[in-house]
Design a protein that fits this description.
84 residues
Length: 84
């Protein structure tokens, strides 16, 4: 069983790996959702595959948002530092 708390960071890490292998950045969110759906379907222990699939999509969307928010925050801090 995989602990559901680690699914989002795993998705973020896998998307970063794919980007390092040449995945265009504009497809990162889509890949995140697809990975979430796959991981949710295969690894969440629940008897309802539809619920697992839906939860996987939610995890993928969350991972995409986590990456985007972190990236924007870091870029904002760099811009503030450069303006000083």
């Amino acid at each position: 069983m995989i602990n559901e708390a680690v699914i989002i960071p795993v998705i973020v890490a896998l998307v970063e790996l794919f980007k390092g292998l040449g995945l265009p950045k504009k497809f990162a969110s889509l890949v995140s959702v697809i990975l979430g759906a796959i991981i949710g379907t295969l690894y969440i222990e629940n008897n309802d595959i539809k619920t697992n699939f839906f939860l996987g999509i939610v995890y993928g969307l969350s991972a995409s948002g986590l990456y985007s928010t972190t990236k924007n925050s870091i870029e904002g801090l760099i811009d503030i530092k450069n303006k000083k």
